[in-house]
Amino acid sequence: MAEALTTRERISPETRSFLTEKVRWAVMATLKRDGMPSQSVIWFDLADEPDTILLNTRKGRYKEQHLRRDPRMSLCVEDKDDYVTLEGRAELIDDDERGLADIQALARRYDSDPREFEGQHRVTILFRVERAIRHR
Questions:
Q1: How many domains are contained in the chain?
Q2: How far is the C-alpha of 128 from the C-alpha of 50, rounded, in Å?
Q3: Hey, which bits of 23-136 come out as E strands?
Q4: Beta-sheet pairing, 72-79 with 52-58
Q5: Are 30 and 63 in contact (CB under 8 A)?
Q6: Which CATH number belongs to the domain containing residue 86 in this structure?
Q7: 48-72: buried (b, 16+ CB within 10 Å) or exposed (e) per residue?
Q8: pLDDT score for 7
Q9: Whose C-alpha in 12, 15, 93, 117 is 20 to 30 A from the C-alpha of 49?
Q10: Domain hosting residue 87, numbered range
Q11: Is the overall model pTM greater than 0.85, yes or no?
Q12: pLDDT tens per residue across span 95-117
């Protein structure tokens, strides 16, 4: 199989299809205070805004703390030898009502029970993609 690497400043229609054609988990990387990366698996979906990924986390988690200090982050979504790496900056939305609605929508996408998040304080993360790398 021939390898191909494509780098763009925006999410291409082909990459959008890869991200939405089936449910996949993403690995999110943020930067710790000492500059070392911190990674975690996270649910995601495309936001309504172009070149924006919707994420969500519980208030107080390390990823939230890292992004408040330094909004740079990346996501990697893979399917065997085919993967996408997205780089950019996060915008944190501190709205409990929206945070709960967003995590419940993500739960439905990932075939989980949205009710398990009731009563939690959540932060919505809007990931503004500045660079998209596609490897196939």
A1: 1
A2: 9
A3: 26-31, 37-42, 45-46, 52-58, 72-79, 82-93, 122-135
A4: unpaired
A5: yes
A6: 2.30.110.10
A7: eeebebbbbbeeeeebbebbeeebe
A8: 82
A9: 117
A10: 5-135
A11: yes
A12: 999 999 999 999 999 999 999 99
